[in-house]
Design goal:
The protein is mainly alpha-helical and 726 residues long. The chain has helices at residues 18-24, 35-44, 49-59, 62-66, 71-99, 106-121, 133-146, 164-188, 200-222, 238-243, 250-272, 283-297, 300-303, 324-356, 362-378, 388-396, 403-419, 428-437, 440-443, 448-455, 457-473, 475-495, 540-551, 555-575, 645-651, 655-659, 671-679, 696-706, 712-724; strands spanning 2-5, 8-11, 129-131, 384-386, 500-505, 511-513, 520-521, 526-530, 632-636, 663-667, 692-693. A hairpin with a 5-residue loop joins strand 5 (500-505) and strand 6. Helix 9 (200-222) runs antiparallel to helix 18 (428-437). The protein is elongated. The N and C termini lie close together (12 Å). It is a multi-pass membrane protein.
Length: 726
């Protein structure tokens, strides 16, 4: 029973071992369904109306929220949000097309087709689907590799008779199709959990490196330089920029600087006064309209040799099939694109789902993006995900559902079929400047480094390795290296955990690391060893080494020394070298060889020894045996979540402690680990279930009853023991 008293509590209960606890408290045996039973259940279950409805809601989440749509409260916000987001989506579609090494107009397709499909299949109500700069850059790397600026295209069937622009569009749509196929397959296999392996630290390092790639790639547009893009770890190296910097177009440079300054200032105003502004000032739209007007009025293209957007797409083109040879050439790059696209979108969606209290399904998101990208690729769009800035606008301007997403797609549609020609005089340097300005958030992630260095050096290493690898090896290889580094740190943390010796905090039933506190009590002859991680094949040897260090001796060496000492004593008794009065001399059996190493690790056999050997006293004939200064060893398994077969075999070596008269106790062991120990025949005549205790305190009470220690803690425990028997 528990008696609360102010900020104290007193619990009076019997002392339990796992055996006594099982006797008094019957455990419910839960039967787990096997794979065979699950399959039989699926085959025999009836497909009733409710199951059909649930399946439909799962595949088409729109069914779940559209029927509860509140027209009066939500429609106006969705309309305002859709218009605002649509304008930004148009500009980002144009700008991110440059990253993909495609004509600007094709970014509008990416802002339209995937958004329409996501409206029906997606589970996030606030995600703005469309072009994402990092994915665009990864697509551009494939495009420039297969269809380079300065050289012949790759020898691919299907390129015959196509212009360079058409070849690049075919490559981009094909790699997008296979990227969507990867996402669809992962969704069908229910592996949405894979995004959990991409930690925030890894994503931060990766996106920061990608931002540097994007920044460098946009310098040729901002400076108005004319040189071909280079496929490689850095899409356009700084060497190319500086070698051609004397040809900088002053008009492009001035325009870019003015645009970046204005946009940064207004964005700062939006951030500082967002609580007072009804909607953020659409500065990107404003400067784009002004730049278009000024460029057209002063004929920037001819007077200043400024490169403009040029001819825009006019309506929609007929669907195309992906090129199989391009798919073969780009499949390796498409897989990391699928992972990155989903990881970024899911992370952003999760933020807003928590904020607005609704759930999202990672597997359904994979299906939604897979189908969206495959469908969009058929209509010449390139890889789609989301952009944090665009999604933030959709949410902050009042968007409640994906109705806002559809309306933003309608805004893109209007530009595609009606007013796209108005954007033809827009300088490409303006688009490059807008891309660079929107990198501010990703580039500012450098500020995380001092915090990581001070608080978690392992995460710091993961960040730096991911960043450097992504910067110099390319984004696809960089992501793989970063993931490998992250998993390596996890393995190191579990393979080399921080084991510790515990002690009792005086006057409590709490046990902590003995090095961290002054007011502690350690009963004489007792060691409490804590294992803070799972025990498996990779760390079982480390665990045993740490245990030997903690107790101060190797039980196997002690056991062998003791057995060897007994052999020597027997030999001395047989040879009359050791005289013991009133004791019959042992038999003269000489089969035992004192120099043989066989059997030294077996239980100590005192047969033929007519005296009681005290291993802690001086032995005859200068026989030396390492001292053992403990009588009880307690292993705290409270943090051990699983054991494998290698660990079970390794734990069998606990017999060595038992054979040298050191009692071993295992406490706080998970019930499912106990089940596994029984299943694997861990227990025998030496290791018994009686060594297991439900709590560390129970084991200590038992030890102090068995080996009284006349210290302060023992006095407290004696009172508790007496109370527990009342």
């Amino acid at each position: 029973k528990m008696q609360p008293s102010g900020r104290h509590y007193v619990v009076v209960r019997p002392l339990f071992s796992e055996d006594s606890f099982a006797e008094q408290h019957e455990r419910i045996n839960r039967t787990r369904k096997t794979l065979r039973k699950l399959c039989l259940y699926c085959l025999h279950c009836s497909c009733d109306t409710n199951r059909a409805k649930n399946a439909a809601r799962s595949l088409l989440p729109i069914i779940g929220w559209i029927k509860n749509y509140n027209i009066k409260e939500w429609l106006l916000g969705d309309i305002v949000s859709g218009i605002s987001t649509g304008l930004v989506a148009v500009l980002q579609g144009l700008a991110f097309s440059l990253l993909a090494s495609l004509p600007p107009g094709y970014g509008l397709y990416t802002a339209f087709f995937p958004a329409i499909i996501y409206f029906f299949l997606g589970t996030s109500r606030h995600l703005s689907v469309g072009a994402f700069p990092i994915l665009s850059l990864m697509v551009g790397a494939v495009v420039t590799r297969l269809v380079p600026d300065g050289g012949p295209p790759a020898n691919i069937t299907g390129f015959e008779g196509l212009s360079m622009e058409q070849q690049r569009v075919l490559v981009a749509s094909s790699v997008t199709f296979v990227m969507g196929a990867f996402q669809l397959i992962m969704g069908l296999l229910q592996v949405g959990f894979i995004v959990m392996y991409l930690s925030e630290t890894l994503v931060s390092g990766f996106t920061t490196a990608a931002a540097v790639h994007i920044l460098v790639s946009q310098l040729r547009f901002v400076l108005g330089l004319d040189f071909p893009g280079v496929n490689g770890p850095l899409a356009i190296t700084l060497e190319n920029v500086f070698s051609d910097i004397t040809n900088t177009n002053v008009a492009d440079l001035v325009t870019s600087i003015v645009i970046m300054a204005l946009v940064l200032i207004v964005k700062e105003i939006n951030d500082r006064f967002k609580s007072k502004l009804p909607v953020p000032i659409p500065i990107e739209v404003i400067v784009t309209v002004i730049a278009c007007g000024v460029s057209y009025a002063f004929n920037f293209e001819k007077r200043f040799n400024v490169v403009v957007v040029g001819e825009m797409v006019d309506g929609y083109e007929s669907p195309i099939a992906p090129n199989l040879e391009v798919i073969k050439e780009s499949a390796v790059e498409a897989f990391p694109m699928a992972i990155v696209g989903f990881a970024v979108a899911f992370s952003v969606a999760k933020v807003y789902s928590v904020k607005h209290d609704y759930t999202i399904d990672g597997n359904q998101e994979l299906l939604a993006f897979g189908v969206s990208n495959m469908f969009g690729a058929s209509f010449r769009s390139f890889a789609a995900s989301t952009a944090l800035s665009r999604t933030a606008i959709q949410e902050s301007t009042g968007g409640k559902t994906q109705i806002a997403g559809v309306l933003s797609a309608m805004m893109v549609l209007i530009v595609i079929v009606a007013v796209g020609f108005l954007l033809e005089p827009l300088p490409r340097s303006v688009l490059g400047a807008l891309v660079i300005v929107n990198l501010k958030g990703m580039l500012m992630q450098f500020r995380e480094l001092p915090f990581l260095w001070k608080n978690d050096r392992t995460d710091f290493v993961t960040w730096v390795v991911t960043f450097v690898a992504s910067l110099f090896l390319g984004l696809d290889l960089g992501l793989a290296v970063g993931l490998g580094a992250e998993l390596f740190t996890v393995v190191c943390r579990t393979q080399f955990p921080r084991c510790s010796l515990l002690a009792n905090i005086t006057g409590t039933d709490i046990y902590r690391d003995r090095k961290d506190y002054n007011s502690i009590y350690e009963p004489e002859g007792v060691k409490i060893f804590k294992i803070p991680s799972p025990i498996f094949f990779a760390n079982i040897d480390f665990f045993r080494d740490k245990l030997v260090q903690a107790v101060g001796f190797s039980p196997l060496k002690v056991l062998k020394k003791r057995n060897k000492a007994l052999r020597k004593i027997r030999k001395m008794l047989r040879n009359g070298e050791l005289e013991i009065s009133d004791v019959r001399r042992p038999s003269t059996d000489t089969s035992e060889d004192n120099n043989s190493m066989e059997g030294l690790d077996q239980p100590i056999d005192f047969s033929g020894i007519p005296i009681q050997v005290n291993w802690n006293t001086e032995l005859p004939a200068n026989i030396s045996v390492p001292p053992v200064n403990i009588h009880s060893l307690v292993l705290d398994f409270s943090a051990v979540s699983f054991l494998d077969i290698s660990a079970l075999k390794g734990l069998k070596t606990l017999k060595e402690f038992l054979r040298i008269e050191v009692d071993v106790y295992i406490v706080s062991c998970d019930v499912y680990i106990m089940e596994k120990l029984h299943q694997c025949s861990f227990f025998d005549d030496e290791i018994k279930t009686s060594i297991f205790y439900p709590t560390l305190h129970d084991a200590m009470l038992h030890i102090l009853e068995k080996h009284p220690d006349h210290g302060e803690l023992e006095k407290v425990f004696t009172v508790i023991c007496k109370l527990s028997r009342l």
